[in-house]
Amino acid sequence: MNQPLAGYAPAPVTARMENHGNHMAKIAMQTGNDLLARVGSMVAYEGFVQYEPNPPAVRQIAKDWLTGEGAPLMKCSGDGLLYLADYGANVVVINLNGDGISVNATNLLAFDAHLTWGVERVKGLAKFAGQGLWNTKISGQGWVALTSRGKPIVVDCGGGEDETYVDPDALVAWSPNLKVKGKRSFRAQSLIGRGSGEAYQMAFSGQGIVVVQPSEDSTDRLRVRG
């Protein structure tokens, strides 16, 4: 191999799911251990891998999605190596190891198909944002890949009395056992958030983490309505 290109070759497989660089996920595929991935996220694969867009199991759960668009997922199955990416976004690979995570759908790249998952409403926010906020909760023994527009920060809420405040348009994921509430902020309106209406934040407290990206989601996930 040409020496300047040698450093870009994939490293030996050491886990079911891992990073190749900062912007790509590498998944070791095995028959019977399927993967659910964002439609269109496959950039390369080795071996024999098949794809089924919007399989029945996904349609059954995604019908509860508030927007009616459903979760744009495909089932990947087979044997080989699968590489996933999302327009150059940073990729964060997580081994849940029996825990759970609540993920913004636009930041969900892939997860093991055997994990327990579903779409659920985030409690305590409806009065701040019309119908409220919907997220995808995933839990169990397995792997999840998230995307972030830039290198994310992972905040450990620490279980203390202090709350952690996040612009919802910059929110990627959080531990589902955290307590969540909305907060209006009139004085900070010109500093926080880019949506119309009042400035607002999501407040987290308890034991767990919050993943925040250094770029706001352009979909304007929450908007305070008069």
UniProtKB/TrEMBL annotation:
It comes from the Bacteria. InterPro entries: AIM24, AIM24_sf, Trp_RNA-bd_attenuator-like_dom. PANTHER family: ALTERED INHERITANCE OF MITOCHONDRIA PROTEIN 24, MITOCHONDRIAL (PTHR38074:SF1). This is AIM24 family protein. It comes from Streptomyces virens.
